[in-house]
Amino acid sequence: MRRLTITVDHQRCVGNAQCLNLAPGVFRHNDAVQSEVFDPTGAPEAVILKAARFCPTSAIRVVDATTGDVLFP
Ligand code: SF4
């Protein structure tokens, strides 16, 4: 499994927990009830990309940590 860099834009995240529901091993809420990544290896890549696609505000960005290729958006 390739290493991913996953980031959540807190200017966009509205905290609806969609990504937490899809990938609870990767995302959790912080004290401001916004999503944060606590384990980028906590779900298969396909699940992480699905969580990114389903985010209603496009707050999640996924990058190949080795090559820098942007996988989403
Ligand atoms: S799905 Fe998007 S808006 Fe909802 S908690 Fe996750 S990052 Fe935030």
Describe it for me?
The chain is an alpha+beta fold and about 70 residues long. It has one domain (about 5-70): 2-Layer Sandwich (Alpha-Beta Plaits), CATH 3.30.70.20. The protein contains 2 helices and 5 strands, in the order βαββαββ. It has helices at about 20, 45-55, and strands spanning about 5-10, 25-30, 35, 60-65, 70. It has a 3-stranded antiparallel β-sheet with strand order 1-4-5, with helices on one face. A two-stranded antiparallel ribbon has the order 2-3. It is globular, with a radius of gyration of 11 Å. The model has no long low-confidence stretch (mean pLDDT about 95). The structure holds iron/sulfur cluster (SF4). Iron/sulfur cluster binds near residues 13 and 59.
Helix content: 10-25%
Principal-axes geometry comes out as: globular
Taking all residues together, what is the mean pLDDT?
Answer: 97
SSE class: alpha+beta
Number of contiguous helices: 2
Which ligands occur here? Answer: iron/sulfur cluster
* CA gyration radius, whole angstroms: 11 Å
Number of domains: 1
The count of DSSP E runs of length 2 or more, i.e. the number of strands, is 5
Written as H for each helix and E for each strand, in order along the chain, the element string is EHEEHEE
Oligomerization category of the chains in this entry: single chain
CATH class (first level) name: Alpha Beta
Strand order of the main beta sheet, please? Answer: 1-4-5
